[in-house]
Design a protein that fits this description.
Length: about 90
């Protein structure tokens, strides 16, 4: 079952979208990430192929988030994690 992670982040400085590129070198195969935002806030919606894939990747993701939070002066304001139970296409 697919697994979703949605977070929201508040930036202290205006977001420069040209430089907002994920710095994680290798995402798990089949993972998708979308970002949405305004000038000072951005959200992230990631879909993993399973909870196991997410769990195996979580330590790397947490390290990335810690590094970026510090270097870009941002704060996580929302976090939701769980299985995708309905998928309407």
């Amino acid at each position: 079952m697919a697994y979703a992670v949605m977070t929201a982040w508040k930036h202290k400085n205006p977001i420069d979208w040209k430089n907002m590129v994920p710095e994680i070198d290798k995402m798990p195969e089949g993972t998708t990430i979308q970002w949405f935002a305004d000038e000072y806030n951005h959200g992230s919606f990631a879909t993993y192929t399973s909870k196991e894939v997410y769990d195996d990747f979580k330590a790397e993701l947490d390290a990335y988030r810690e590094k970026v939070s510090s270097s870009m002066d941002l704060e996580k304001t929302f976090d939701a994690v769980g299985p995708i139970n309905v998928d309407v296409s």
